Structures
1.
Amino acid sequence: MKNTGPYVQWILLALLLLAPFQDFIYIIFLMKVLCFALFACAFNLLLGYTGLLSFGHAAFFGGAAYISSHVCKEWGWTPELGILAGMVYAGVTGYIVGSLAIRRQGIYFAMITLALSQLIFFLALQLPFTKGEDGIQGVPRGHFLGLINLSDDISMYYFVLAIFVAGFVLIQRTIHSPFGQVLKSIRENEPRAISLGYDVAKFKLLAFVISATIAGMAGSTKSLVFQLASLTDVHWHMSGEVVLMTILGGIGTVLGPIVGATVVVGLQNYLAGIGSFSTIVLGAIFVICVLAFRRGIVGEIQELWNRKNQSKASS
């Protein structure tokens, strides 16, 4: 599976490039999947490759959505500058939250991130520019570089796809760099990493900031797609959803978060018609998937592939 990974990624990219020309695909739904897939990939960098479970990533995702929406609507910034502003917010907030949270480990780390995320939720509810429970509505998509009108869904889709690919490539390069190898060693055996002379706290903090920044990129992009920033984006439920996406797809796999995000967003979309019962159905599906695929969907596929190769080699 390791050798076939790049081919799978190129095939996936080709399918995404051709997707808008398929009549059976709803392009807004596809853009939503890409935004949440990027969000899940950012979270997976922290959980899957550093071993840090954060319950506060909605603060970066939703907070960046508010910042981008505000600067684009009220200040007239172009979409690329709006997304950049959201990323700066997410990076700075990630540095503050990470500096406090990495002082603890395990459940204490998770609870600190959750508590600070709830603080961001309270600010989003109370600050005047966020418009309270109404959120920031009617956010203009604008013109990319002042040239390409993003009001057209096709143009907006390729803009979102370009952002997703840029974020995905950045995460992949981080994972396969010497920095990424240190993160994996921290995940596997932190005391050993310390004994080798690595400043574990700095590596954790940098991983946290990168993850938060890319999560902010995803949130900012989503606010432009739906032209809305709301309290849903900063609620703790959003942090729970990205955890489910990552676990369902496969923790510590490159494509796992993308698959997990596609499954979760797809189920939410197609089960919306049954009302409140959709939550029960979703919960049941997640329980079954977690019990049946303990490594996640992609993780199980990789394991089956490895077993197959081993059996061929032994025979």
2.
Amino acid sequence: MSERTVETTNAPQISFLLFLVLGAIGALTPLAIDMYLPAMPTIARDLGVTEGAVQITLTAYTAGFAIGQLIHGPLADSYGRRPVLILGVLFFGFSSVVSATTTGIEALTWVRTAQGFAGAAAAVIIQAVVRDMFDREDFARAMSFVTLVITIAPLIAPMIGGYVAVWFGWRAIFWILAAFALVVIALVLWKIPETLSEENKQPLRIRTTLRNYKGLFKNPVAMGLIFSGAFSFAGMFAFLTAGSFVYIDIYGVRPDQFGYLFGLNIIAMIIMTSINGRLVKKVGSHTMLRFGLAVQLIAGIGLFVTWLLDAGLWGTVIFVVMFIGTLSTIGSNTMGLLLSSYPTMAGTASSLAGTLRFGTGSIVGAVVAFMPNGVTWPMISVMSMCSIVSAACYWIFGRKA
């Protein structure tokens, strides 16, 4: 991978308003996944099906999301960012309307698959848009704040969805998603220009697309950066899968207090995001990525040591907070280094990175779910291993970017 950074001319100012717009785009899928989780039992009763049948609709969304990421990126590299983004969000909103009016679980499952496919457009293209708008360090700064919004969204979405389901019924959740999609389209039309120049557009050819993916797979530096971010992200999936059981069932935390401990993760992420935003322009993406990986590795090793010493709740909480706090720093800088080296296929690179990140996280979460219950070591050992693998992927391969 060459040391190539494309300077952005007439780069826009990194403003709070721009962050809000980018964050709103990135929040579509987290809201679509998590807002309706509290309403799933109600959906099962209303449609006269088992809870398992409703849970399949969530799997359907993630399947459509994974497939969509591989397709929307090449489309955005060929036809531009704005048309693919707007059509994706528009179809996302239409799918939300159909979900709100459907009367059968089979229809809801298929529509949720389509909604996930459409929602992937926002997840993929937002990174390509930011890469087009800013140079490498400003990309990392902007994406760290966008990542923060995307991470906070799943935390507040279940609370919002729970209240909406109680007050207005589960169908209102999908109506809210449809309205939010319209707001996002308006924000894109108002604030986000077409960021892909005509000379950087790539003809859409299946062979070319497959060749681009193959080229990324064969590039050890690119894959090192992608999997460094993916395993960091996967460590969070391990916590999301088992964290509530560890805190509540093993350490005796009251369910109504769990949210406060979870909130410590967000505070740590805000602090780390602020540090990254202030320093990345001065010291560079490599330095901030190494800093984030070092903190995460200390957290992973600390988790394992506290488990060996049986240090209890706070011994675990402190290092979990350190681990989760690094996610936006690591994620934004790995993507900044990756996309700065592929200016003509940023959408394709973003697609592959998103699919592998999401897929790695899902696999790791499933592994934790299948491990023994009632003990802390599955979550802790997997988080520790993720921190080691993430750091190794960068130091062995990604640092050559």
